[in-house]
Amino acid sequence: MTELQQASLPKTWRGNCRAIFVSDIHLGSKGCQAEALLDFLRHYEAEYLYLVGDIIDFWALKRRWYWPVAHSTVIQKVLRQARAGVRVTYVQGNHDPVLGLLDSFLEGDEHRLAVGEIRIVPDCVHQTADGHRLWITHGDQFDLSMHYARWLTHLGDRGYSLLLTLNRWHQRLNRLLGIRSHWSLSAFIKHRIKRAVQFISQY
Q: Any alpha helices (H) in the chain, and if so which ranges?
């Protein structure tokens, strides 16, 4: 979501779908685009809402507290949807380990952990309208750096935060110059680093 571009849909437009999957919002970080997510949630309604990890960035909050009004509005919006009957499931990610710690106390419990009407799980299965079963997981267990170079992951997280700051200045400069581009410096470098780690881990 940190790379999500602002939507340009009419305010009166509404779309309906059975399930929405959202991940890597990173509320609590300066790179979070909470306004874009709010715009999306205002335009779409679903029976199921899956928050697939790293919705709240506890790593960033631990380094420096950053929580603008828009981030609280996102939480309130999701809670309102849950109270209105949307089945909201929060799948844990690697930046929200506090939720995983809480859930560990309920391991084996059929209902797992719930905050209000929101269910919190390490992973889950979603059944589509045509009967297909989808395994829903954040995917950090497939990231080799999380298993073999956790120090690199934390170092990379700090570097990525810096890149997001540079990326915001890059986008502002583009707007001043009248350049329309969705290319992201932070996404480009992050992808290259992950490919390098995967290559090195093969040897």
A: 34-43, 58-63, 69-83, 97-104, 144-148, 150-177, 185-200
Domains in the chain: boundaries: 15-139, 145-200
Helix (H, G, I), strand (E, B) or coil at 64: coil
CA distance 74 to 144: 31
Name the residue among 143, 159, 156 with its Cα closest to residue 198: 143
Query: Model's pTM, two decimal places?
Result: 0.66
DSSP string, 106-122: TTT-TT-EEETTEEEES
pLDDT for the residue numbered 100: 54
Say which residues have a Cβ less than 8 Å from residue 199's Cβ, sequence separation at least 6.
Answer: none
Question: Please, which pLDDT band fits residue 143 given cuts at 50, 70 and 90?
Answer: low
pLDDT band of residue 39 (cuts 50, 70, 90) is: very high
Confidence of residue 156 (pLDDT cuts 50, 70, 90): low
Work out whether strand 44-52 and strand 87-91 pair parallel, antiparallel, or are unpaired: parallel
CATH number of 15-139: 3.60.21
Q: Which residue has the higher pLDDT, 156 or 148?
A: 156
Are 125 and 136 in contact by the 8 Å Cβ rule? The answer is yes
